Backbone:
């Protein structure tokens, strides 16, 4: 394993240089409006179009789906290359890839569970953002307890007819396709009666209603299905296999599995480096914040966590170093990184003193108020894709072998 | 244990104080419900004039002002009671700002100045705010960069509560090298107010640019003496407000957790929710004890007041942050929406934390007080 | 309430002076051996005798059971006086009162639930340590889930016959009496089948086996009952009322109720004051610890907690200040103070640097190694009398109104 | 983000390293089971000579020493592997002390000195320890108060691991104002060893009083250079040992929680137990990642080594403290008894925390490294 990495290091380095050069030469222009911090908050058509165009451009340059099969529009390169792209994009501070659901969740499960026809139909369009994907898992009364979902799909000849109510659907207003969980057998056991669909969004019987987030931004939607019909071949895998595929999808969402087509490391651009920069420019009690021992101690703590998380990611790739608890690091990553960033963002606001009470739009706001918006947005990370509480249950049960909480 | 052993403040709570609290809670629940607070979000002014009038009639706008000048002549305990109740409902009316500013005048003014200014302040016809924070965030009166020159003021103050609705500002200015408190009318020529885009829409703030504005008065006593009297009160009131907000956020979340079901039972039955909420309860109740201790110390004229008020401010800011962070998290997806009230409290907590010193600041001073200052 | 306090202030002050004078003149001599930190760790006969003599002396001076009824040997004074004694004893650093179970738990429940004969029989002897009390609640498989206890008591005519196995019994080797929970009706519901006994310890059928604590000290015991028989009048309250009386007892144990006959505030003499003294004498990284800003911040945190707890105790006495959640402060007190002291003791060890690795018996140990022993002993506070976890459940359910965890 | 961005250490782990780990775990589980460790508690020496011989035969006592002098010539990763496994079983044999001391000789000695001392050290016939800590707890070589005068040493060192069983001590001494590393035999005239009463009976320590003892040798290289090479290794090894101990404490507690029943189910089903144990898992695994990063940085001769080793030392001490505190608590009444193994690990964690700098110390230095030193 370690040997393979050493072997390809030179090739990787030269690829990295290529990416860096391209990004430098193709950095998109200032949009002239505020961009969202993540794909969760795409609110206006301008934002949508700008971001979609950017992904298409990155794809055309060969930097999306770098490791995915060539026959479906991918780059066919070995493992490790996509991460180089993600790192360079993140480093350059260019916009994120909007079609995250397609690249990181829908795409990988279609590659894993889809028919040849489904792969041909969906993958390339997802990579190029020609088709935008959204996710239809949660319902008003099925959040942490996702398997209690009530949306029904009924087979009528060659069609499925869906009725129900989904929430927290990012990009719901723009999406062409949805990964949808629906109950196909109400008599089966809770988990066994669920199926997984690749549902079209632009059809009759689907209504999209926007939700406003705690930051004041839009981006979330409720989706109402009222006898929405689509062809039978939109089922992914087998009838009743939905829960298994959902768990695989959540594995991707929580970062517990590799294989995304890009965009992962770019969700938020604020991190320990940004915190250090902020501290460098901040005055507290009349002295530079960096002279304050308690600020230094806090930064050292955040830095230690950040470095530990970085090496934990690298350690995951070396089987010998995770032999005792192979699932621990991948499952930990989401809860640890989201809570780290939440604490870090909060501290970023605190460091600003009185200016921390300002927000986007105030000329005196530090970093244009991005820290405050970032902080509030971190709750999407600790809530969505399985709350921190749910992930801790999973860790306790799957990794520590503790009995189920119920 | 020396410095802590010598704390001699005694808690007391009268029947009248208990009645004041009941009255405040009842009145604010009806006049400043969370729906009413939300309705004021888009309002350019941000508070309801009818509520102002009602507060005036109840005598709360002149709460701390001397009775001889139309005030209620009450003390820190009553102020803490009102602030706590105001904090529960995120009252957007600038009660704290006004009461503190009136107290500045009461403490700092000459007999004549008090006779002139206090009656309209106590009656509420004149709205006031204390404008002591610099653009860079320093907030001690000795840090002021506003200068008096030939009867005119030059400089800027920021993070001023109710900047756009106050009629008069109390602000520390440098006069011949000495710092004094000036009273300046908002409509003075050469005074410009700019509203700030605040994280917390329930407490408006703004910036005051003085470009040759003439003060109406310079209070008689030196600014540092006035500040010494005001700070423990202000810390305690802000702490009380934060304790009230933390309690409301806790109640909101506990109520949700008791009814929202997942896995076939209310989520509050899960210790992953229950135990953190208990930790919120503990932090909040400990902060509440500090608030009442500080208020009693002030009213008893006790030397403990500064130490206890700093402890109250630090402890309440931590409790409020914790309570409101858990409020968002435990509301799950709903907590991430504008519709859930959790973020309103979270925003207030974020905005209150730095005000008049954040917890790190106060703990450093608490250490100085109980351990002696560090060698330079 | 507040008025009553003010009214008696002068009398209280003069009583305080009286206590202080007595303590100064009657401080017991150095025993010449190591004394335990609490009654949980009484291990040798020398320790036992020394401490028992001390309590008798304090009683004879009129400072034990100060507020208890005169007819049972108490002092008959109003509320507030016992606290003055406890504070002065604590301040003077004289030994604790050994018969804690008698003074703080058994005594109060006998006063509350006992017959006149029981009060006459037991109270005075408990106050004077003429009879030492122990507690027989926990069993090997009934700890947090106390109500699942299996020790059986069977009524035979005028006698009860007890068989079973109790653990964690402090002073078990020395005690004359035990407050004992036993199941009298195995067919009744879990909580309903339990009765509460005032059991004699020096009878046939009772074996005491010592346990060693994690500090290396003794003091805990296992108690084996094998058909141990005692008279019927040893039942406290009614048959089947045991659980109700046990909860009242635990209320006393957790500090949620007033009414002890002394000794409460004296369990550990280490606190924020001791920590400050320690910091004053400690050098870290070549500088006085008190010059280190992170030490100062930590001390300020502990001081804030300590002061908050002190005023929370005072607040409990003013109904208007606890009107919203009357049970919160009494129930919180145990978990908050025990965890505070555990953190504080741990930090005391940390402050000592390398010397923190030493223990009792090393001449170079700071404060004779008491911090280390204290730290390890704090787990008795966070475990016994209801673990922190159990108390948090009670707080969540009784105070916050959250549904039961089961 | 500058200082952190420039970290270039790469993780690597060879087949041989994985085999070493398996071998160490198997061997220590049988030869140093927790029962065997307990059996040594009353032993005046505190470690089992048979285990020492076995470690010698496996080549682990000369792990880091050069192959030309009989050592295994291995690196920090192998050392971390052994230390982690030793930490799991609380191995009382002073493996770490000896390997570090041998490394001191290897790094600091002249060719002749190395040829003389390393072979018996590597073979285990000569037991060594590094005696660098002062009575007051300072531990840098430049802080040493041991003075050389006319070929005789005067002074005291404390907190020396295996003080009573080592045959030779490496200790920093002041020679004509310069600090050098002296080798002194325990049986030298004028050297007195006093065992210390340590909190942790599984790692014995003691005090060395030098009252005119003559050193066998003064290593060639200046002490500060030797220390620079030793410290990252020592921090990393101690961190690895702590991670091993934290893991063992976690395993112990999780196993208990999975079987101990209360309220009709295993207590591990309650989130009040489960979630804190997950937090222990996270802290421990993050520390483990830092340990391997630091070890790889050392073996790669990378400048990151000091930063990463400090992070590993700080992170592992916090994780070990947390893991062992929860281990006692979650064993309930049994956890409070001598019979439960939890307190054995708790004691080791308490004793290891200050060794070579506690977390506060290292975080202050980490900040210096990534932020630049504070203005004086």
Residues:
């Amino acid at each position: 394993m370690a040997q393979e990495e050493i072997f390809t290091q030179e090739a990787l380095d030269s690829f990295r240089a290529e990416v860096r050069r391209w990004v430098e030469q193709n950095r998109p222009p200032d949009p002239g409006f505020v961009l969202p911090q993540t794909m969760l908050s795409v609110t206006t058509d301008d934002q949508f179009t700008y971001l979609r165009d950017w992904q298409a451009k990155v794809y055309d340059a060969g930097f999306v789906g770098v490791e995915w099969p060539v026959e479906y529009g991918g780059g066919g390169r070995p493992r490790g290359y996509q991460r180089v792209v993600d790192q360079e994009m993140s480093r350059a501070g260019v916009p994120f890839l909007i079609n995250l659901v397609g690249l990181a969740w829908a795409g990988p499960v279609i590659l894993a569970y889809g028919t040849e026809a489904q792969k041909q139909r969906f993958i390339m369009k997802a990579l190029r953002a020609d088709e935008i994907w959204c996710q239809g898992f949660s319902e008003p009364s099925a959040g942490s307890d996702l398997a209690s979902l009530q949306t029904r799909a009924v087979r009528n000849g060659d069609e499925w007819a869906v009725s129900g109510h989904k929430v927290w659907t990012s990009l719901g207003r723009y999406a062409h396709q949805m990964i949808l969980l629906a109950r196909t057998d109400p008599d089966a056991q809770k988990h066994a009666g669920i199926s997984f669909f690749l549902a079209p969004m632009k059809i009759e019987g689907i209504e999209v209603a926007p939700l406003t987030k705690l930051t004041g931004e839009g981006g979330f939607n409720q989706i109402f299905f009222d006898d929405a019909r689509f062809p039978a071949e939109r089922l992914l895998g087998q009838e009743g296999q939905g829960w298994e595929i959902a768990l695989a999808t959540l594995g991707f969402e929580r970062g517990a599995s590799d294989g995304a087509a890009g965009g992962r490391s770019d969700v938020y651009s604020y991190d320990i480096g940004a915190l250090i920069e902020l501290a460098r420019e901040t005055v507290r009690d009349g002295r530079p914040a960096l002279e304050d021992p308690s600020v230094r101690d806090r930064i050292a703590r955040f830095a230690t966590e950040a470095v530990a998380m970085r090496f934990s990611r690298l350690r995951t790739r070396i089987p010998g170093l995770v032999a005792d608890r192979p699932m621990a690091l991948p499952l930990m990553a989401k809860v640890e990184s989201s809570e780290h960033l939440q604490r870090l963002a909060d501290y970023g606001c605190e460091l600003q003193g009185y200016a921390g009470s300002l927000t986007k739009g105030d000329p005196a706001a530090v970093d244009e108020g991005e820290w405050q918006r970032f902080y509030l947005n971190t709750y999407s990370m600790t809530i969505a894709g399985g709350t921190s509480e749910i992930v801790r249950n999973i860790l306790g049960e799957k990794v520590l072998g503790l009995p189920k909480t119920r | 244990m020396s410095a802590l052993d010598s704390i001699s403040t005694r808690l007391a709570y009268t029947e009248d104080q208990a009645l004041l609290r009941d009255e405040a809670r009842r009145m604010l629940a009806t006049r400043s419900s969370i729906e009413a607070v939300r309705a004021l979000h888009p309002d350019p002014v941000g508070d309801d004039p009818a509520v102002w009038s009602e507060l005036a009639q109840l005598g709360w706008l002149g709460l701390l002002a001397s009775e001889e000048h139309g005030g209620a002549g009450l003390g820190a305990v009553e102020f803490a009671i009102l602030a706590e109740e105001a904090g529960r409902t995120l009252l957007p009316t600038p009660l704290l700002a006004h009461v503190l500013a009136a107290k500045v005048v009461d403490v700092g003014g000459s007999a004549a100045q008090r006779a002139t200014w206090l009656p309209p302040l106590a009656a509420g016809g004149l709205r006031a705010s204390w404008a002591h924070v610099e653009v860079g965030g320093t907030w001690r009166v000795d840090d002021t960069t506003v200068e008096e020159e030939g009867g005119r003021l030059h400089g800027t103050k920021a993070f001023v509560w109710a900047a756009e609705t106050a009629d008069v500002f109390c602000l520390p200015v440098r006069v011949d090298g000495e710092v004094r408190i000036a009273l300046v009318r908002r409509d003075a020529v050469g005074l410009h107010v700019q509203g700030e885009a605040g994280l917390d829409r329930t407490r408006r703030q703004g910036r005051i640019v003085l470009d040759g504005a003439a003060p109406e008065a310079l209070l008689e006593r030196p600014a540092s003496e006035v500040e010494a009297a005001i700070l423990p009160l202000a810390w305690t009131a802000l702490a009380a407000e934060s304790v009230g907000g933390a309690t409301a956020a806790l109640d909101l979340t506990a109520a949700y957790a008791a009814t929202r079901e997942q896995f076939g039972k209310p989520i509050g039955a899960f210790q992953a929710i229950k135990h953190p909420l208990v930790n919120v309860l503990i932090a909040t109740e400990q902060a509440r004890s500090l608030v009442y201790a500080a208020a009693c110390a002030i009213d008893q004229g006790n030397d403990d007041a500064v130490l206890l008020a700093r402890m109250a401010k630090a402890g309440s800011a931590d409790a409020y942050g914790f309570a409101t962070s858990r409020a968002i998290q435990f509301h799950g997806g709903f907590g991430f929406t504008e519709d859930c009230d959790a973020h309103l409290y979270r925003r207030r907590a974020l905005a209150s934390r730095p005000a008049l010193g954040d917890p790190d600041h106060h703990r450093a001073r608490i250490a100085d007080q109980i351990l002696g200052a560090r060698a330079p």
